[in-house]
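Backbone Fold Data
Goal — fold tokens
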Amino acid sequence: MHAFLPFLRRIGARLTAVLLLVALFGRAQRAIQRRGREAAAERAVLPSLFDRYPGATTAPQRRIGLRSVPLDRIVGTMRHPSQNTADFLPLRRLRGANWRARWQRIDRAMDRLATLPPVDLVQVGDEYYVVDGHNRVAAALHAGALEIDADVTQLVVPGVTLPGQATLDTSSLAGNEEVRLAAQGRHSRTVEHRNASDTIARRDLLNDREPDG
């Protein structure tokens, strides 16, 4: 029996080495897959409304107001060109220290189930595009939420807006300058108008004006 002990020890050492190599190989494979997913997310740029509907810059619009919007109906951004990846986070090169601090504040607020200011969305047909609030949409998705509070404006795009979805009045023709500015990647002076009740919360969470939504 004692004669077999050295043999068993050698077998055990070799088996340990093989298992270690398998573990290292698996870790390397997972790292490669993770980098691949990150690269794919970086390539999957969030669609811009104006790439899908170039005519939206002159489309009539009407104010819908506050409503709860399903997150799976929010499909793109009003920025042109898009500055966000498909998960609504900024493009990786735009994720600086200021953005990371802001993201942590929003993420902590979501964990506390705090009420955040509504995001600004534009509705085209049954889909929604983010004007302001990309980070809040990303945080809601990360938290597994199904809906988000939003201040909605509808664009009446011919061939897209369904019959009965829009009721135009004289106010529906106002505000197209804001849409044109969004198509150029800029916000108009009116985009950030807020009620006094949410000013403090917005400043605390978003540092007043956040270039990455």
User: Anything to note?
Assistant: Strands lie at 61-70, 74-77, 119-124, 127-132, 147-155.
